[in-house]
Amino acid sequence: MVLLVRVWAAVCFAVAGLVTAQAQPQTYPSKPVTIVVPAAPGGVVDALGRTLAQRFSEAWGKQVVVEHKPGANNQLAAEYVTKSAPDGHTLFVSPEVTFAVNPSLYTKLSYDPAIDLQPVGEVVS
Description:
Layout lengths: L1 H6 L5 E2 L18 E5 L6 H17 L3 E5 L6 H8 L7 E3 L9 H4 L12 E2 L6
């Protein structure tokens, strides 16, 4: 179980382009937040995404929904997130394979993990 948790430990990447925390308005979030999960419902990443959505909804008083985009070794979800509005309202919960392994496996990705995704947190066990 610990190994499984560590596999999914590189978690919770916000995709806000290059927007920094200082650029966020004081009323964040100003609209519903979407957490994109690159896996089908029922797995560890889904459970983590749903837990975060519930906690964020309670803390922010805004709706936070989980959207599943499984497939292509997490590339479908990563591409979807990088093409979303860079306003901080789309978060990405993903394992490290999306950021560390895929660039080595594939010669052409639709996203650049070093530029298009900005980490805002990490969950480790």
